[in-house]
Design a protein that fits this description.
Blueprint: E1 2-4, H1 14-26, E2 30-32, H2 35-44, E3 52-54, E4 79-84, H3 93-99, E5 106-111, H4 117-122
Parallel strand pairs: 1-2, 2-3, 4-5
């Protein structure tokens, strides 16, 4: 079985395309993370005739107990773009950071594991520290 994460929006270099094709050829079943990833894979690759499934990323938190008195330390002062998850290169947060000056009516709120080197890259003088 193969689990295919959606990475096809950008054009893959030939070596990566070849590796991806080899993985597809070996699959006995394919699991996608979204319908979009499935459609995009079919649009760009010859997908073998094997069982295919879409299993969305799930939330493993089953019990959320937030006190009624909870208040975040800081709130955005205007509309905002929000992302939650690990700070990793594959999430391409730097594109969001570079795009932000083009959206002066929006704040950018990134939340998640911010102990990686990516956090240091996104610390720009014009960014607020949302710790």
């Amino acid at each position: 079985m193969c689990i295919l994460q959606h990475k096809l929006r950008r054009i893959l270099p030939a070596q990566q395309r070849d590796r991806f094709n080899l993985k597809l050829e070996r699959c006995t079943a394919i699991v996608y993370i979204s319908e979009f990833a499935k459609k995009d894979t079919h649009a760009h690759f010859k997908v073998p005739n094997v069982p295919q499934y879409v299993i969305y990323n799930g939330n493993t938190i089953t019990d959320i107990d937030i006190p009624k008195s909870f208040a975040p330390k800081q709130l955005p002062k205007q509309k905002f773009l929000f992302s939650i998850g690990a700070f990793s290169e594959r999430k391409n947060f730097m594109s969001l950071v570079r795009m932000l000056p083009l959206l002066p009516d929006y704040d950018l709120v990134l939340s998640g594991n911010n102990t990686t080197h990516i956090r240091q890259q996104i610390r720009m003088p014009w960014l607020k520290n949302w710790e």
